[in-house]
Request: fold
Amino acid sequence: MKVRTKHRLIKDKALLWGVCLLAALTAVPLIAILGEVLLRGYDQLSWSFFTEPTPTAYKAMKAIEAGEPIPGGIANGIIGTMIMLGMAVMVAVPVGILCGAYLAENSKRRFAQVVSYLTDLLQGTPSVIIGIITYIWVVVPMKGYSAIAGSVALCIMMLPLIIRSTEETLKILPASLKEAGLALGGNSARVMLRVQLPAAFGGIFTGVLLAISRVIGETAPLMFTALGCSFIRWSIDKPISAVPLLIWEFFNDPNLQELIWGASLFLLLFVLSLNLLSKYLAKKWNQ
Amino acid sequence: MEPIIPILEFKNTCVSYTKQTMAVKYVSAAIERNTITAIMGPSGCGKSTLLRAANLMHELYPNIRVDGEILLNGENILSMEPIDVRRRIGMVFQRPAPFPTMSIYDNVLSGYTLNGIRLAKAEKDATVERCLRSVALWDEVKDVLNKKGTFLSGGQQQRLCIARALAMKPDVLLMDEPTSALDPIATAHIEELMQELQREVTILIVTHNMGQARRISSKSMFMYLGELVEYGDTATMFSNPTDERTRAYLTGKMG
Reply:
């Protein structure tokens, strides 16, 4: 009898260790990526890296020849990314929240089920396809690449994420909350606006942050829409740069390849802090 | 002498969740003004279902059907707009559910906010004080009105929910086991409060607790398997029930 127990305990231990080992293995690539980017990009990060636009290939070549660090930075990309994200968020957040609220409230209706299914499809659509579609829809009629076109592509990519997180958060709210609101004579729109959405704010906000961190690194859709720009630009109807676009451009220019790592590090840290922030907020909200 | 119109009257009220099963079967009962009427019965007897129908809560769930009539001052609420009915028939739920994002002050006024009624600051202050006083919560929370209602104890939260319902000056207050999630002291508070409140509002309360029904109500209903078995004066029902099933339930032979 005793031997049997021991046998089972050993098996249990073995399984535990096996699971731990596999979990550690999945963490390895993440840590390796972080380490690589940190090591290579760390000495490029300086004040001017964030305030100056991309250097020309000629300037970079001269600097390399003289053995100096490459001048300039990625300010044009950061500003472009922020402008496009800002415009995308302004449209995607209200539309996504309203759509999510509709889906959460009417999950039994045929129309809502169809919309819900389409949302899933949109979420699974390859970003390069969203890019080429936006090219046809926005760039061609506007007769040129622009920040507007870029933000449309990012907005389409963010929508399903915001819709889903709104829907899911509203669905896990206790039904008593909605019933209490309705029992006081509120109509369902007011109860949604005054009771349910405020109560779901934490989850929705987390969803928006995750949506931002998800699209901030998108490159393919921006190649078809924003195109890129080597200087700082604030207008929304002209081609504009973005951080992931810059990384692609740096990769294609032998003289600028050193800058890839600084830009990558910036992007990685930005996404990482957005994720940490959303985790922190979600935790705080659930207390 | 004119016949007195009861404040709330069920007339052959039936509630069904599916075509085959009826949760409430042909209930007819007239509720007297300014009384506390208790609805008792074992789990699943349809007492909560009946109560919720009086607030049109079933309209939230399309599969639930209500037949017959429910009259409020002689008007059938089943053909009225839910938002009009719910303003006049308040409801307090089993679990205290103050709105978590609103302060205590805003919770009391939430009925107005949710109905899109704007009040002047002085009116708001007066309403909040009146309602919190009538649930004996004013002295406890008057200095923390801007804090969230969720910081209060369970009993205080439930009293806040009653205050919130009273703010709309309803004719009838429906209470669905309002003390079942509370400790005995908080329960005693709420029971005392209901005695006070029946002067301004008619109370219909579902309770699992026979002692509670006996202590607070003047009229009692006993429901069993969806039927209204017996309805009459609480004292008479407890001392001398007419139906064998009521007797069995009240003496603990059936739960």
